[in-house]
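thread: overnight batch results

M.L. [08:02]
morning all. the overnight job finished for the chain we discussed friday. pasting input first so we're all looking at the same thing
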Amino acid sequence: DIGITTREALSHDNWETAARHAHESIGRTGSNGALMRVVSVGVAGLRFGQQWTIDIARQQSHLTHFDPVAGWSAAISAEVIRRLINGAPQTEALSGINELVGDEYHAIFGDLLDDAWDPSHNTDWSNGAASICLAQALWAVRSTNNFSDAIVSAINLGGDTDTVAAVTGAIAGAAYGIQGIPSRWVTPLKIGRAHV
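M.L. [08:03]
and the structure it wrote out:
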């Protein structure tokens, strides 16, 4: 399914103003839909670098999610994914990431990106919000040491589990690679070339 924000934005006929119209209609657009679709930007960023990754992640977010916090959440996720695929250790992948965020958002993301952030102490916000979804996904990867445990930890948080698990999977996949995904999860998938 798609979320309310994405559905509302896609119902408008002008893509350039769709996100703003959705924001005006709903009253908020900081939800996690913009965050869960950003993995390809992080992968492409390997070729184009940090600034491109951040800019394109924010642009893709703003196609449907007008709230800048959603855009910055997407940018952080994409850049962390890019750094992890590039071989950075997890602590290095998060190092200085808050400095890449616009000054007015440092306070929001500073706490959420901190190693000490723990979802059990932060229950006031829904993980339907992009920033909380990102914080929970990063926590799930940081607090475990393999792909499957990260996914299970994310799901066990409850709430919007499919999206939090998708974001966690993207980050954990970048950290552990295809070899880190349990074969019992990969074997049932038919991987190969499509026949034309």
